């Protein structure tokens, strides 16, 4: 998988510029190859330095996805090179994963801390690495066909790309539930949880771009407020859109919060399984959790119970070690093999259930691979 990112500069009436970055890897639902992240990261840096660029729009090509995640197939091949010895394969995996995740997290962090408005047009599938790009934007838009999730538990990874930070920004228990179940939420749910700020009909994308061109950028000292006003005007039409789906998570909000209280992961898992479900959405969440990696469940549990105090930069530093260690442990490799490579759907997890996981394994995963001063993400600002 290679893919690309299409860049365009729109000229406003005042001569100011609107940068448009379009993720283009439609065959893989705009999943992020290393080359795509590299292109996006360096273009964002360039636009940030250009005084004539007033704002940025980040979107996905086609109608199916904003971004479905990272290039886990490339990671799988780096983790399972047959012709190499075990030590050589381990070294190759470590090097590739370190390189990939370092760049991805740098790009995510740049979006979070960008000095200009970034509008994330989250149409269609927004999952995994796509969530990492989306949640950091200053202005987050969804459409009637948006679907969001952090489904890493299904492939033996965990909610990364800043998940340690943004899952802890959600109401108590909700972030843990989303991480443990990989549950897919829609635009009304995301709006209610403040993951998104606006819902705009999918066919209004071009109107948004045209409205941005018309804004009086030269006359305003607050470009964020200008973008807010443009998005509010467009989102009014979505409030009564008959195509807008009903909320799926919010009806279970209090039950989920109660189920996810406590300091025992096994009990919390049992509580979630015991939730009375009135629809396929909750049943799917339960079955995903039951089939997911017990190690991933333990990682997610620690993220929201032991690391809620970390600032954003430290979250990314923690996750870089976690992600690389997951890649060399074997759980992540096995999950990708079973779900995406062989597609057998029967991963052989290292531990059968959450209560059988050796906590010493989780302790090692949370141990940094680098001293603070040589950490690949040491230069992220606090």
Q: What order do the helices and strands come in, and which of them pair?
A:
Layout: E1 4-11, E2 17-24, H1 34-49, E3 53-60, E4 65-67, H2 72-79, H3 86-112, E5 118-122, E6 125-127, H4 129-135, E7 139-142, E8 147-149, H5 163-166, H6 174-181, E9 185-186, H7 187-192, E10 198-199, H8 205-214, H9 223-235, H10 253-259, H11 265-273, H12 280-291, H13 294-306, H14 312-329, H15 331-341, H16 359-365
Parallel strand pairs: 2-3, 3-5, 4-6, 5-7, 6-8, 7-10
Antiparallel strand pairs: 1-2, 8-9
Helix pairs in contact: 1-3, 2-15, 3-4, 3-14, 6-13, 8-9
Features:
382 residues, alpha/beta, 6-stranded mixed β-sheet, 4-stranded mixed β-sheet, 16 helices
Sum this structure up briefly.
This protein is α/β, with parallel strands linked by helices and 382 residues long. The strands form 2 sheets. Strands 1-2-3-5-7-10 form a 6-stranded mixed sheet, with helices on both faces. It has a 4-stranded mixed sheet with strand order 4-6-8-9.
By DSSP, the count of extended strands is 10
Instruction: Give the radius of gyration.
Output: 21 Å
What is the global morphology?
Answer: globular
Strand fraction equals 5-15%
Q: For the residues shown, what is the average pLDDT?
A: 93
Report the end-to-end length measured between terminal Cα atoms: 34 Å
- The secondary structure category is alpha/beta
Mind summarizing the main beta sheet? 6 strands, mixed
The side-by-side strand order for the widest beta sheet comes to: 1-2-3-5-7-10
């Amino acid at each position: 998988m290679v893919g690309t990112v299409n860049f365009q500069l729109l000229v406003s009436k005042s001569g100011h510029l609107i940068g448009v970055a379009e993720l283009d890897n439609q065959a893989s639902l705009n999943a992020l190859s290393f080359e795509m992240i590299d292109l996006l990261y360096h273009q964002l840096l360039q636009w940030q330095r250009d005084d004539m660029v007033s704002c940025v729009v980040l979107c996905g090509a086609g109608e199916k996805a904003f971004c479905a995640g990272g290039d886990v197939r490339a990671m799988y091949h780096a983790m399972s090179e047959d012709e190499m010895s075990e030590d050589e394969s381990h070294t190759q995996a470590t090097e590739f994963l370190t390189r990939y995740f370092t760049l991805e997290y740098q790009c995510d962090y740049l979006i979070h801390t960008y000095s200009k408005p970034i509008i994330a047009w989250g149409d269609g599938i927004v999952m995994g690495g796509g969530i990492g790009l989306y949640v950091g934007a200053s202005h987050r838009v969804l459409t009637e066909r948006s679907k969001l999730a952090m489904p890493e538990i299904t492939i033996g990874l965990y909610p990364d790309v800043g998940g340690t930070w943004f899952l802890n920004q959600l109401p108590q228990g909700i972030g843990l539930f989303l991480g443990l179940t990989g549950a897919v939420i829609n635009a009304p749910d995301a709006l209610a949880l403040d993951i998104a700020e606006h819902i705009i009909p999918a066919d209004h994308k071009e109107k948004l771009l045209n409205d941005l061109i018309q804004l009086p950028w030269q006359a305003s000292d607050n470009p964020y407020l200008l973008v807010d006003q443009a998005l509010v005007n467009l989102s009014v039409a979505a409030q009564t859109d008959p195509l807008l789906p009903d909320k799926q998570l919010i009806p279970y909000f209090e039950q989920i919060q109660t189920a996810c209280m406590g300091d025992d992961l096994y009990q919390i898992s049992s509580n979630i399984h015991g939730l009375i479900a009135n629809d396929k959405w909750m049943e799917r969440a339960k079955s995903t959790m039951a089939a997911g990696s017990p190690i991933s469940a333990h990682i997610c549990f620690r993220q929201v119970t032991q690391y809620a105090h970390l600032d954003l930069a430290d979250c990314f530093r923690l996750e870089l070690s976690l992600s690389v260690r997951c890649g060399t442990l074997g759980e992540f490799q096995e999950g990708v093999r079973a779900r995406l490579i062989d597609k057998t759907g029967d991963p052989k997890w290292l531990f059968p259930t959450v209560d059988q996981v050796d906590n010493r394994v989780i302790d090692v995963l949370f141990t940094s691979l680098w001293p603070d001063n040589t950490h690949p993400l040491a230069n992220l600002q606090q």
